[in-house]
Amino acid sequence: MHKQSDTPEGNPDRLRAEATWPQVERRRFPRTGQDVLEPVIIPSTAPPLPSLHFSTQDLPPEEQFEAWRAYMRPIIDVRLPDNVLPEDGFFASHTVWHFGKMLFVRQQSDAYSYARTAAQLRYSPIDHWYLGLRRSGQAWTEVDGKVIKTGSGRVAFRTLGHPYRGRCTSSEIVLLYMPYSLFSGEAGLFKSVNNSILSGTLATLLANFLAQVETHLPSLTLDDLPGIVQTIRNMIVNGVEPCVRPDHDHPGQIGFGTMERVHHYIHHNLHDPQLTAEKICRSVGISRTRLYQLFESHGGVLNYIRKQRLQAAYETLQDPANQDRILDIAQTAGFDVAANFTRAFTNEFGVSPSKVRKNLSAPHPEPTDFPVPNSKQVSFENWLRNLDL
Fold this sequence. Notes:
5-stranded antiparallel sheet; Jelly Rolls; AraC-like DNA-binding protein; 17% strand; alpha+beta; Arc Repressor Mutant, subunit A; 2 domains; DNA-binding transcription factor activity; globular
């Protein structure tokens, strides 16, 4: 039998197929990059994060350490190691990003010793919680006779409301400064683990998350902050709980700074209608002048109380299980007239109480007064003092 040719001329089926379908070019080589459609990246219109940078690098060597000392004075007093002279020079780099309810810091420095004294605490309005994730180097910090050592990859936790002292080698570290009010409900828990090393799986997850946040700092915007702050807050609470010692379930306030004691009293009596400056002074044992000085940056202690009550009202409105009337929530927050509460709430958060309740999934809005990096009033000290606003 004659075998049909495999050429187009001898294969009627192939001829019909090629007549029906248009000729398709067969590529002998892979497509080039010009043939691949690139994804369209739409830039975010949200503002970038406010940040501040300090460095001693461009200063004369003999001025470098004094500049670093002045920069850190709002928190600690720093000193050179015994075998180092000021004219030897001192390198320090400190960049801080404002997260609204936290300050995120990347710091590099030569070796130094540090102390936050009881004398500083008597006059300082700063009593923030403080977390350090060390990237390199080592540090030894003593609180009430207990010394902890931190090395690379370890997470240390303490309060600026209690005296401490220590020293560190040349180091790189990531720091978080967080206001008392961010963890007011966990204040007793946190005091019992002051100056502790967070350990275990949860601490590792926290360290990994902070590393991811640090990596993405150049691309983060203000819109990203509420979720990031809430995530970090929850991870810290979960990471601290396993570190609680049974003999510290009910810690006292001995040794803590004046601001720490005032904060503790206010947050435990926040909804007391008789919470006044006079009552705070009597209960804590300080003068009206001292109380005014501590809360000067907050616009006074009564303004601070009002803001904390509004914050508590916001959290109540966001709770799906809470069915209280807005009028009742307003009265708990110290407002007898619902209209006055709505006006104050809207000015603080940029949204009305009724809208918060209707949209429980909406992200927490930050107060409208966000720091502007180019402002002459902006400094690391200013950000620390006003972090609780």
